[in-house]
Amino acid sequence: MTEQPMVRFDNVSKRYGALTVLDGLNLDIARGEKVSIIGPSGSGKTTVLRMLMTLETINDGVIWVEGEPLTHMQRNGKLVPADLAHIRKIRAKIGMVFQSFNLFPHMTAMQNCIEAPITVLGMKRADAEARAAELLDMVGLSEKKDHYPSQLSGGQQQRVAIARACAMRPKIMLFDEVTSALDPELVGEVLEVIRKLGREHDLTMLMVTHQMGFAKEFSDRVCFFHAGKICEQGPPSELFGAPKNERTRQFLHAVLEAG
Amino acid sequence: MIWDWAFAFEILPVLASAAIVSIEATLIGFALAASLGLVLAVVRIAVPWTGWTISVLVELIRSTPLLIQIFFLYFVFPKFGVVLDAFTAGVLAIGIHYAAYCSEVYRAGFDNIHRGQWEASVALNLSAWTTFRDIIIPQAIPPIVPALGNYLVALFKETPLLSAIAVLELMQTAKIIGSETFRYTEPMTLVGLFFLAMSLVSAALIRSLEGLLNRRTMR
């Protein structure tokens, strides 16, 4: 591969006390690649996203973003733990959408979408509003821009959250079980927005999901996590069609049975 | 007759002007308590290594009588070259004392904010300052207005302690009138009634502020 990866997990480990959540993770994600992470709960899959978003610190290894270390910085040729300024600089390339939406309840949909562009990127209010209006239009919520989160359905809230994340123009978008908190009939509208985002933008996307059908159809690569490690990975056709690993087979069998 | 209306009306203007001093002390003291308390609570979260120091400081202030703190600022500080007039020393002591209580109230307010709000702020790369100013504080304040309001009323009722360092507030003025005329019934009753009226008024104001904030945030 000539081009350096967009994201590289280099032997990354995460432990909580005696519990090892991720054990020496090595994972490269190419620019524009759509990667789905599946696996049983407790397999460490959400932790991967949370470490990349710097919501969790790591115990070992280095995370790289576009060839620059995220968790560390170079000083006198050595890698030392990153300070906040460095983390904020690299973190600007990453956006995240959460399972529980996490919209700011005291702000309208529009205010949610312009807060960070104005305060972090220093955009003028008018420019930020114009951009937010485009994004709210993209997620199909132009007419709800002055609504507060509590006035919106779960699916609508999640679509606002996607627009809000996009307003910061990230290169990498993380989706953490974004449809798990939704009523079944609202899942489709959120997945449709993610599909659109994948088509219209040259985004690198990394998602933890339980929607096997969507993972199969949408992603370039699927990683199956088990007990803090990537157990098996490959194109969805292979991983879903002909899983090589016994654990993958068991998991897919159990999930497809249920769903 | 025990109650002399003529005397009561005669001392009313003097007491009224003293009441203004009491109200001033309350408002300045509470403004100090509310803002310093907020600063303490924010710093405790934003700069984790200060946590222990601030806890000790807050505990020290809350566990010693306000009267001692007032005396300390007024009589002991001059020994270290810090000379304050009685009103300043008194209001400062009251403000700092109640800041310790208020900081705990703010802390409870911050603790009630869902973790997802902090995480969304990180994901949007907001600075710590912006996160507090725009995300956390606006959500944390409305639910704690009643608790802060209780401290406003409590602080107000403690302003008579300033009479101990001869600030000419209501209590001190009433004492002076009493010792000059040997009539305590009217001045003390009037002072009591004044505190009662003011406490009721501020409680009503806080209730309506609470209602206003709830309407604005609970849409």
Helix content of chain B: over 70%
Beta content of chain A comes to: 25-35%
CATH level-two architecture of chain B: Orthogonal Bundle
Mean pLDDT figure of chain A: 94
What is the oligomeric state here?
heterodimer
Strand content of chain B: under 5%
| Share in helix of chain A | 25-40%
Described by the principal axes of the CA atoms, the overall outline of chain B is flat
| CATH class label of chain B | Mainly Alpha
Class from secondary-structure proportions of chain A: alpha/beta
Report the span from N to C terminus of chain A. 38 Å
Let me know the number of strands of chain B: 0
Largest sheet of chain B: none
CATH superfamily of chain B: MetI-like
Poorly predicted runs of 5 or more residues of chain A:
none
Please write the string of helix (H) and strand (E) elements of chain A.
Answer: EEEHEEEEHEHHHEHEHEEHH
Structure description:
The complex is a heterodimer of chains A (259) and B (219). Chain A is built from nine helices and twelve strands. The radius of gyration of chain A is 19 Å and the shape is globular. The termini of chain A are far apart. In chain A, the strands form three sheets. In chain A, strands 8-9-10-3-11-12 form a six-stranded mixed sheet, with helices on both faces. A four-stranded antiparallel sheet of chain A has the order 2-1-4-5, covered by helices on one side. Chain A has helices at 45-52, 84-91, 109-119, 125-138, 154-166, 184-200, 212-218, 236-241, 246-258; strands spanning 7-16, 19-29, 34-38, 60-65, 68-69, 72-75, 78-81, 94-97, 172-176, 204-208, 221-226, 229-234. Chain A has a domain at 104-169. With 219 residues, chain B is mostly helical. Chain B has one domain: MetI-like fold (Orthogonal Bundle). Chain B is 80% helix and 0% strand. In chain B, helix 1 (5-46) crosses helix 4 (86-111) and helix 4 (86-111) packs across helix 6 (128-158). Chain B is flat. The model of chain B has no long low-confidence stretch (mean pLDDT 93). Classes of the chains: A alpha/beta (259), B mainly alpha (219).
